[in-house]
Amino acid sequence: MKVGALLDELKLDYEVKGVDFGSDEKEKGVKGENYLAICANGRTPTLIDHKNNDFTVWESGAILQYLVDKYDTEGKYAGKTAEEKATVNQWLFFQVSGHSPVQGNLYFSQVYWKNAFGEDAPETVVKRFNNELHRVLSVYEEQLKKQTEKNGASNAWLALDRPTIADFSAFVWLGILSHFGDKLGVDLAKFPHVAKYIQLAESLDSVKEMRKRVQH
Amino acid sequence: MKVGALLDELKLDYEVKGVDFGSDEKEKGVKGENYLAICANGRTPTLIDHKNNDFTVWESGAILQYLVDKYDTEGKYAGKTAEEKATVNQWLFFQVSGHSPVQGNLYFSQVYWKNAFGEDAPETVVKRFNNELHRVLSVYEEQLKKQTEKNGASNAWLALDRPTIADFSAFVWLGILSHFGDKLGVDLAKFPHVAKYIQLAESLDSVKEMRKRVQH
GST C-terminal domain: from which residue to which, for each copy (chains A, B) (predicted)? Predict the structure, then answer.
């Protein structure tokens, strides 16, 4: 979804191929022989660039950076100066290393733990990741509040005054909280700037287009 | 440590200032007013670039990329082409999003859980993060084996045939396993290429220099 939104924003055509999570079946499994041949880590997404001799790269953050490096030569989505780029990348790394592992672990504890370990997730696990997700959301909330004051509500993006790869990374994971907040013990009403930000991102034509093409 | 190693490699002078982890004391706490003013996320590291009007950036991955963008204009440590850069960044993102959160959670479970929650970490927590750390180490092992065959043992770096920012990110966290493997239930003897890689990185003059200057 992160990568699809950027591809649609860059008006680059793409085809989405799904893999089966939790499976090591040869043809379709995320840990199967075929997929491991293109992504040694056996996780999604992986990009194969047919415009560049089928060059292959995995890790969503690296894919986003590759695409802007190659196809956004003006730096609209990556930042135009070393300083803009650094600010964009700061929020991109915050998302992939500080936000998604925490939300991912909380989600796993509520949805998959029992199946994996034969018992409900211990209370302390839920507490640890729920607390940390709330802290992370506070960091987003504070930043988006500042960006609203600085750039106006219609340009309240995470890093700059326009959507960047930091946003294409963040809005997908924050958007999940609109649908699964109850399950994860997160009430987005407590983070009004985050809630508005999700709406802002979903209002982009590129994101609407991506939502038609990329399924969970 | 990641940033210090690169700064020493680039022969850029730096001063290390420590903050107190787990503290919100105004002057020195990682969640104190002074530090939050430069790093909204209240985590380390943060770089203040005195050669560039005190430009400030946090998140280790973003700092490494900023430094090479600004001070490694040949792309020695970042990659010289879009494809080299993408491969370097792929392994950099793998480290910060796939490796360190897992190892960090396992370490927390063994060292801090009892203090945080008044009870030992549940067995399933240790199992979850120990299993995933072993999977991550297998991905490193396989890649380093390939790199050894391709570039020789003395150039068996993670992404390219020379040390890059992906290595400055990875070796620090892998090196921790040389010292705390017992506590984390990891036996590096089962990952011989990873063990050799740690030695290779620690043999760099820049890393030796960094070890003198940066403390835990």
Answer: 81-216
Q: Is the pLDDT of residue B216 over 70?
A: no
Flag whether the ipTM exceeds 0.90.
yes
From the list A70, A93, A113, which residue is nearest B82 (CB)?
Answer: A70
**Distance of alpha carbon B26 from alpha carbon B184, whole angstroms:** 33
Distance of CA B8 to the CA centre of its chain: 15
When mean pLDDT is compared across A20-24, A68-72, A167-171, B174-178, the lowest value belongs to A20-24
Write b or e for each residue in B145-158: b if 16 or more Cβ atoms lie within 10 A of its Cβ, otherwise e: eebbeeeeeeebbb
* DSSP sequence for chain B: -HHHHHHHHTT--------BTT---TTTBTTSHHHHHH-TT--S-EEEETTTTTEEEESHHHHHHHHHHHH-TT-TTT-SSHHHHHHHHHHHHIIIIIIHHHHHHHHHHHHTHHHHHSSPPPHHHHHHHHHHHHHHHHHHHHHHHHHHHHH-GGG--SSSSS--HHHHHHHHHHHHHHHHHHHHT--GGG-HHHHHHHHHHHTSHHHHHHHHH---
Q: How far apart are CA A154 and CA A199, in angstroms?
A: 10
Helices (H) and strands (E) in chain A, counts: 10, 2
Helix (H) / strand (E) containing A177: helix A165-184
Interface mutation target, options A52, A55, A70, A83, chain B, most CBs of B under 10 Å: A83
Contact B65 A86 (CB under 8 A): yes
Nearest to B93 among A55, A96, A102 (CB): A96
